[in-house]
Amino acid sequence: MNMLSKLEAKWISLTLRQLWITAMAAPKVHLSTLPPEPVIPSKKPFKVELAGGKRYSWCTCGHSKKQPLCDGSHKTKAQGLSPLRFVPEKDATVWLCGCKYTNNPPYCDGTHKQDFIVSAPLHEQTDS
User: Fold this and answer.
1) Cα atoms in the 13 Å half-sphere on the side-chain side of 91
2) pLDDT per residue over 38-69, tens digit each?
């Protein structure tokens, strides 16, 4: 049986202690803001014809003028959010979420019928 000598055990203990002290002394990173919440562009889903094998980018921020797909608006209006990219396996007609709060993105799961969406303001698109 291989046993550590007292000197080796002391060295390991001091090394680990120094690593812990260094880690605790490191500056902490504080985010000044959390990623933005998506806005609600529609309280109904979008019926979309998808082509199998084609890559789509579903808007997650709600600012796109090409709903339900991304037009890059998140880069200026919702930094911290990015589109959900997906590739359907086959051609299909689907309902893509319009409220942006689905639990099954990018597909509608009926979340838009819940009170927090029904009572929320609808986002109005602007030219800016």
Assistant:
1) 0
2) 999 999 999 999 999 999 999 999 999 999 99
- Mean pLDDT value of segment 110-120: 95
Rounded to an integer, what distance in angstroms lies between the CA atom of residue 47 and that of residue 91?
Answer: 13
- β-pairing verdict for 56-58 and 84-86: antiparallel
Are 83 and 58 contacting, i.e. CB atoms less than 8 angstroms apart? yes
First to last CA, the chain: 73
Give every CB contact of residue 100 below 8 A, 6+ residues apart in sequence. Answer: 38, 39, 40, 41, 59, 60, 61, 62
Please name the residue that has the structure tokens 């930094």. Answer: 79
